[in-house]
Amino acid sequence: xxxxxxxxxxxxxxxxxxxxxxxxxxxxxxxxxxxxxxxxxxxxxxxxxxxxxxxxxxxxxxxxxxxxxxxxxxxxxxxxxxxxxx
Length: 86
Hints:
The protein is an alpha+beta fold. Helices cover 41% and strands 19% of the residues.
């Protein structure tokens, strides 16, 4: 059973993920995002951002539509990822 502090952090991460969920964009452009760094030692918002981008472990890749929300997410974790046009 998780402690109260751990449950509160998990709730905060889930809330952040829910707020950052991607809105459908009108652009057809997509980016291939690859996680190269480790989320260990990162902040909770960085971990939630990686989860929103669909990146789980090192080396994982995801296709992301070009929206202002996605660009902000990419900028938040730019030091951990590599971005290529798809």
